[in-house]
Structures are given as structure tokens and as C-alpha cells.
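Thread title: Can someone regenerate the structure for this chain?

I was given the following input by a collaborator and told the matching C-alpha cells would be attached. They weren't. Posting the sequence so someone can regenerate them.
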Amino acid sequence: MRDEPQDQASRITRAFDELAHDYDHAHHDAIANALLDLVRPTPSGAAADVACGSGAVAVALAAMRDPDASPILAVDLSPAMIESGRVRAEQAGVADRIEWRVGQAVPLQVPDASLDLVCCASSLHFLGATALADWRRALRPGGQVGFTLPAASAFRAGGVFAELVATDLPLPDSADGACRIATDAGYVAARAGTLSLGSRTFILVTAHTRS
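Best answer:
Regenerated them for you:
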């Protein structure tokens, strides 16, 4: 019998490899930039862009950071997405500020309490609630998480992606509901905002681990 988590990971990898050649970078850049505006990251510290896709968060964050800050870890299951991210980072002049890694997002392959910031744009609804618990493990006391979710009322996943949406993380329909997702997962000082792109609405959340 095939292992179910591995089968799910394989399906996600195939789906995003196939999507990589015509990925809507402008759309995901807008979400990433709005998330970073909410997070207000420090210019240094250990940071990760989880399920990074083509690295919208990683590339934008790298441009904000001190040149001598440690490289941002950008992780995704899709080799094609990682390769797209490498190209975008080179074009943006920040190739040396990002460590690209093909690998799983959950569990994130980093030591416990080793990160100051974990960001996840446009992917948590595929990863599910276990990701929030794992990021809390990976973050140092007082560390920060930033993530986005599509608003439930405006979300219509199509094709194979509808089958890949996690079933253990109900999508929120308000900023308050999104904050509750963070606090229910053990985070504190949650804040949220919204972003509308065309007919779609996204909810952006940041919160901290306990100090």
C-alpha cells in the first residue's frame, strides 16, 4: 500500500511542477508584498519562506535585509518552482541572499527554535493545521509567523488543486477568524489584514510565539 503522506506530496509536486511554466508571478508578488508590509520584518535574523513557490516572499524579503544577514531559507516540494525562484533571485540581484531547497514544508527540516521568522504565502491551505504547529516548533521564543489564506467566500479551487486543499484547516472569512486560527495554534499577539485582487480576497496574518 502506498504511504498516504508521500502520495499527497507527490501529487502536490506534480501539480506545481506543471504550473511553474506559466505561474502568475505578479499575483503572488502582490500577496507576498502585502504580507511583508503586515509582518514588518527585521533587517536580519534567521528566516524561512515555506512552500515558497517561485520565491515571491524570499526575493522581496532578501531585498529588504542587510546584505550580511544570513541567507533566507526558501523551501518547496517542486523542483520547477525552485528553479523559477533561482532565476528570479538572480534577476533581482539577491541570488546570494537565499538558500533554495527542494524539500517538504512539514515538517520543516530545521532544528527546533532556530528561526526568527517563518512566512508562508498562498500555500497554508494546502499544508493544513500541522504546519502551524511545526512552525511554532521551529521558531525561537518570541519568533514571528506570517501567512496568508484565501477568504472562504471567494475561494474556488479548480482541477487537481481542489483535491489538494487540506481538510483540517477551515478557511476564514474575516480577519478576526484568521487571527483565531493563529491563536488556536498557540500563537500570541495575532494581527490580520485583507487584500483584494480582482474578485478574490486574501487574509494576511502575523503572530508570535510566546517569549
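The longest helix spans residues 4-19.
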